[in-house]
Design goal:
Length: 217
């Protein structure tokens, strides 16, 4: 900020900047909601199709898993940009809006502190959150449950079609794909789901310093 600007002009500039950043955060949030809806819709459609027809092979369920992984990668990128703009919004709220709520005009010291924190970020759109952490957060919030639903639908498909069975060994035997044994596919599916859970738990947590608000449910 230029030293010649008075406090009123600075406040006006920051207000318009705040509105712009809120708008950008909303755009990225809507993009995240879109991929989430795609994932949920794909899971529901494929599971219904597979379970509704005994002639449909069981591995069709894995198509939903493959598409969900793609949607997760897209959504993790979108979360990094949402996080970028939302963090800037939160910074302005703590530094500027808080003063307005308390009926105390922002002090020159508050402007200087805001300049030190926000100033270096202006003109850049490089996310500060890593893709790994973003993917872990979306796994923790949404995608672990979708993968669990897909795994359950796959097991139900194997257990109920083409005929009902209560034998675990027969369920595993039915899971084969071509020359690939069912046991191998079971182990691979279980390992992939366990890896997703571990990533969500280990990397998907939020801090107690306001970061919990930087991500939609």
């Amino acid at each position: 900020m230029q030293a010649s600007l008075d406090e009123g002009t600075r406040a006006t500039i920051l207000i318009h900047t705040y509105r712009a950043m809120v708008g950008r955060a909303d755009i990225w949030r809507m993009r995240m909601d879109t991929t989430t809806n795609w994932s949920i819709g794909t899971t529901a459609a494929v599971a219904s199709f597979a379970l509704g027809n005994a002639e449909v092979p069981h591995y069709v369920v894995h198509i939903a898993s493959f598409l969900t992984v793609i949607f997760l990668l897209l959504e993790s990128r979108r979360l990094t940009f949402y996080h970028l703009w939302q963090q800037r919004v939160l910074l302005l709220e703590r530094s500027l809006i808080a003063s307005a709520v308390s009926s105390a005009p922002p002090s020159p010291e508050a402007f200087r502190a805001l300049e030190q924190q926000l100033g270096p970020q202006l003109g850049t759109t490089v996310p500060s959150m890593s893709r790994t952490k973003a993917a872990a957060r979306r796994l923790r919030r949404v995608y672990v449950y979708l993968f669990a639903a897909q795994l359950l639908a796959w097991i139900l498909k194997l257990a109920s079609q083409p005929t009902q069975t209560a034998s675990l060994s027969e369920i595993v035997a039915r899971a084969h794909v071509g020359s690939l044994p069912g046991a191998v596919l079971f182990v691979a599916s279980g390992a992939a789901f366990a890896a997703a859970v571990v990533l969500a738990v280990a990397k998907g947590g939020v801090s107690r310093q306001g970061e919990a608000a930087d991500e939609p449910a």
